């Protein structure tokens, strides 16, 4: 037997390249790439949402840990509520804001 009569199997790299091209033409790799991209996008969206919720909770928790409570109303604070706050030795502050209008 001569060396030309014996067929050698193709190298692994050549086989891998051929299979890659075949799968690309068949559309299987495009579907796989789309699925991976979608998975990465979903993971990033969930991580972003989780981070924003965590930041919001930390920001609000800092306000609650201070023990401050705010009562806001369009009307003056009723006197029984003011008396109850004074009886419990709470500090109360009254403030007023006025909306302003500008005309050009």
3D structure, described in words:
The protein is mostly helical. It has a domain at 12-67. It is 60% helix and 0% strand. The chain contains three helices and no strands. It has helices at residues 12-26, 28-65, 79-87. It is rod-shaped. 0% of the residues are buried.
Please name the defining characteristics of this protein.
60% helix; 104 residues
Briefly summarize what is shown:
The protein is mainly alpha-helical and 104 residues long. The chain has helices at residues 12-26, 28-65, 79-87.
How is the topology of this model organized?
Layout: H1 12-26, H2 28-65, H3 79-87
- Note the overall shape: rod-shaped
- Rg over CA atoms: 35 Å
* Strand percent estimate: under 5%
Structural class: mainly alpha
Cα distance spanning the termini: 101 Å
Tally of helical runs: 3
Low-confidence stretches: none
Largest sheet: none
Percent helix, as a range, is 55-70%
The secondary-structure element order is HHH
The number of E-state strands comes to 0
Mean pLDDT: 81
């Amino acid at each position: 037997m001569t060396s030309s009569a014996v067929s050698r199997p193709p190298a692994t790299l050549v086989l891998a390249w051929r299979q890659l091209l075949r799968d690309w033409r068949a559309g299987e790799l495009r579907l796989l790439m789309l699925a991976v991209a979608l998975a990465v996008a979903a993971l990033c969206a969930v991580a972003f949402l989780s981070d924003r919720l965590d930041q919001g909770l930390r920001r609000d928790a800092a306000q609650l840990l201070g023990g401050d409570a705010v009562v806001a109303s369009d009307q003056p604070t009723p006197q029984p509520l003011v008396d109850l706050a004074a009886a419990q030795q709470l500090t109360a502050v009254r403030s007023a804001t006025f909306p302003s209008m500008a005309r050009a």
